[in-house]
Design brief:
Blueprint: E1 3-9, E2 14-17, E3 24-27, H1 48-63, E4 70-76, H2 82-93, E5 100-105, E6 116-122, E7 126-133, E8 136-144, H3 150-158, H4 162-166, E9 171-174, E10 188-190, H5 192-199
Parallel strand pairs: 1-4, 4-5, 6-9, 9-10
Antiparallel strand pairs: 1-2, 2-3, 6-7, 7-8
Length: about 210
């Protein structure tokens, strides 16, 4: 049976769960020069073979040479586009560093207990307001990180969906990248450590 390896694509790096502990190890592609407001992994597309080689070697250093028995459970930023999701899947599947991949946005990994909740997060380019119900994204709003008005996000969160207007829906502030200071009063803070603990064991069937 294939084993699952939790993996997080952050705003500036890739984190892979260690085989023998709950710690995450950081993969940094050498000599990257990402452009502002563009996810760093876009540059992988210009150096496909080199990037895949380095990633596979990194995986070998953690999990050994028999990588075809592992499934990468990839957690991505909440504003990852459909096209970016396809690229991410294809990149890692074709790297030879795993058997298969599964993918899920950060917002859907914030709680295993709540049936419905609001997530607020921030990527390298957007603030993301998202309503999650039954592990599915129902509504999502994106705000440019440079022009976003905190008060507008707060107002929108209160009327994001009819469920939110007529039910007591918890709000989770995803502070994984430690960049959510202005939103802390809006809900329950999820720290980097808490987030990693939540995804240290992932059920691939739910991704």
């Amino acid at each position: 049976m294939a084993k699952t390896v939790p993996m997080i694509i952050t705003n500036n790096s890739i984190l892979i769960k260690d085989r023998d502990s709950d710690e995450f190890r950081t993969f940094n592609m050498p000599a990257l020069n990402p452009a502002p407001n563009i996810p760093f992994y876009h540059e992988f597309a210009e150096r496909i073979a080199e990037s895949q080689y380095h990633f596979k070697e990194f995986m070998k250093s953690i999990y050994g040479k028999k990588l075809n028995k592992y499934i990468l459970a990839i957690i991505v930023p909440d504003d990852t586009s459909r096209l970016e999701s396809i690229f991410i899947n294809e990149f890692f599947v074709n790297s030879g560093a795993c058997k298969a991949v599964a993918q899920m946005p950060m917002a859907r990994a914030l709680s295993k207990e709540e049936i419905r909740y609001i997530s607020i997060s921030k990527s390298s380019r957007n603030v993301i307001l998202e309503y999650v119900r039954n592990n599915e994204t129902v509504v999502k709003k994106l705000y440019d990180i440079h022009t976003c008005d905190v008060n507008q996000v707060k107002a929108d969160a209160e009327v994001l969906h009819i469920d939110v207007e007529y039910n007591d829906v918890p709000v989770f502030i995803n502070n994984f990248n430690m960049n959510m200071d202005e939103y802390l009063e809006m809900g329950q803070l999820i720290s980097t450590k808490e987030f990693m603990k939540k995804i240290s064991v992932i059920d691939v069937e739910k991704l």
